[in-house]
Amino acid sequence: MGILTSNSGKNVRAFLAYNNLSELIDFIYSGKSLFVKDEVLKRLTDNKKILRENLIYVGDETRDIEASKRAGIPVIAVTWGLNNRDILAAMNPDQMAHTPEDLLRCVHRIITDL
Questions:
Q1: Looking at the domain assignment, is residue 78 inside a domain?
Q2: Measured between alpha carbons, how far is 109 from 103 in angstroms, rounded to an integer?
Q3: Which residue range is the domain that position 101 belongs to?
Q4: I need a labelling partner for 75 at 20 to 30 A (CA). Which of 32, 36, 89, 98 fits?
Q5: What average pLDDT does this structure show over 81-88?
Q6: Which CATH number covers residue 95?
Q7: Residue 12 pLDDT > 60, yes or no?
Q8: Residues 64, 23: Cα–Cα separation, whole Å
Q9: Whole-angstrom Cα distance, residue 53 to residue 114?
């Protein structure tokens, strides 16, 4: 499992450590260059030798949904982040999670739909 973010790697690592989640994350791709996330997603799959059909993208912005669609990766939109529920729903993500607990249900639905 990895994190792709425009936030700083230092902030992400601090958050993960504070919440005892560091061991769950294999890699962090961060930086301002992530405003073209679809290109980064494609490079990530090539560099890490990860099949796109083995990925699910979780994002809180419309650009996350757009990037995952362009990269051919299913996306779960989370409604507790930057963009609100209605804006995200209008982008037609594969699934929407309204609480962190919803994520597992959303992942299961995507996997069973494949």
A1: yes
A2: 10
A3: 55-114
A4: 32
A5: 94
A6: 3.40.50.1000
A7: yes
A8: 25
A9: 9
